[in-house]
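We modelled the chain as a single entity of 241 amino acids. Its sequence is:
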Amino acid sequence: MKQTILLVEDDFGIRETVSDLIHTMGYLTLEATHGLEALQLIQLKFPDLIISDIMMPEMDGIELLQKLKSNHQYCTIPVIMLTAKADFDSQLDSYRIGADGYVTKPFDMRELSYKIKNLLNLRYNLLRAQVDVGSSHDPEWQFIQKLNGKLETHLEEASLQTIAELMKLSPSGLQKKLKKYSSQSFQDYVRIFKLSKAKALLESGDCNVGEAADRSGFKSISSFSKSFKDQFGHSPKDLIC
């Protein structure tokens, strides 16, 4: 299975450039425009590496890094900080919190590619050398996995009321738990879940845009295409080879 890299960057041009590099290196890409989106994507698809800008709306890269490194489930994911800030203090802040790499814009693509490859190789070797235990007993992990399972099998009728009943929670109880664990509303969580599923289907080459929309719970291709472009910055057709 190909390793997955989560790219968190609000500038479309930079995001597209780095995403192209990642694909050229043979890895899969997840994309987010700020820290809050990144946190939800991490829960949907556990990435092998994260590349994050520092200056972003909603939640910046430093706050995202703090949340990741303070969470025992995500703290082992290597993080490369990508920023226009060239001052030494920014680098120190990133490393103090736990960043594994730092690249300053404008950056050399070779430097970034070497850091990506080295960190992924290191992570692979560490995972081979240790046995991960206990995560399945974590309440947050159990809740997110259960929720994702319900969404996967009920995409077309993924209303708050329906999913709450399946989770054996009240609608307000589900909203409260989801906000606690993901910092997202139910509506935003479901939207990104569906779009991430569609993106994975398109990247796999197993279906066209219409089929990806249908299998991801979208009733309208035009609505799907607009939501997809709003989320990822490009049309779903761009993923069709």
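As a brief sanity check on the tokenised model: Residues 88 and 194 are 40 Å apart (CA to CA). The longest helix spans residues 109-129.
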